[in-house]
Amino acid sequence: MTKSTDVSTKLDSYYIAGDILRINEEQFPSLARDANTPNTGIQSLTFDARIIFLDMPLVFDSAKLLLMAEKVIFTNRAAILFNALAPQLNGDGISIIADDVDLTSAKTRPFQFKTDNWEFLSDGSQRPWPSDHQRKIDVSSNHISASDPLLKEDMFKFFRNLTLDQKYGYAPGGLSLAPYILHVGDDVATQRYDNSFSTVVVWPDELSRRVDPTGAGYFWPESILCTSHKLGCGSSGF
Description:
Radius of gyration: 18 Å
Oligomer: single chain
C-alpha cells in the first residue's frame, strides 16, 4: 500500500495492489462502515489487481474510487455509496478499467448514489452541483457480463439503472449523459486497458517479488496477495 496526502485539501490517497484482491469485511475491516458512518478524509482509493472481488459495501462521504484489473467481479453484497451533500473539490465517483466486468450476481443497484443534484429538475430552489464538484461513472471494459438485456440495447440506460439516478427524470440538453463515460467492447476500452496494463498497474511487479526463488511456488497463503499490509489486510485500517 502507498499513501499520499494532498497538501491543499489534507485528503489522503491510497493505492492497494495485489494478485487477487477480495474486498470484503474480513480482509478490509477498516472499510466496513454503515451509511451513517462513512469513510472520510479520502481523496482517492485505488485497487490494482489481476482479479478484484468486490464483496462488501464501500461507504464514503466523497472519494474517487478506481478499480483496475483483468477481471472485476461484483457480488450481491457489493455496493458503493457516497453520502456527502455534494462531491468533494475536483469531484468523486467510480472508475473501472478492466478486461472483463462481471455483474451477473450484482445487486439491482450496486451504485447507491446519484450523479448530480437531480432534485433541481422538479424543485426550483435546487441547483446542479458546480463544475468543480462533479461525480463521474467511468467504465472501460472489453467485456461486461450482466443478466439485463438492456446492456446491449441501451448501455447508458443500463448503467443509469445501476444508480439512484433512475428515480429522476431526464435533464434537457443531454445533461443526464454527462456524468457517464462508458466504453465497452470498443477501441477506446481496449486502448485504455492496454495502456493501464503497460504503464500504470503494479500488481505484476508485486506478484513477481513473491515468487519463490527456488521455483517451488509462492509465499502467500491461498490466492490472496495484498500489499496494504495492515491497511485492511489484517486488523488495522486507515
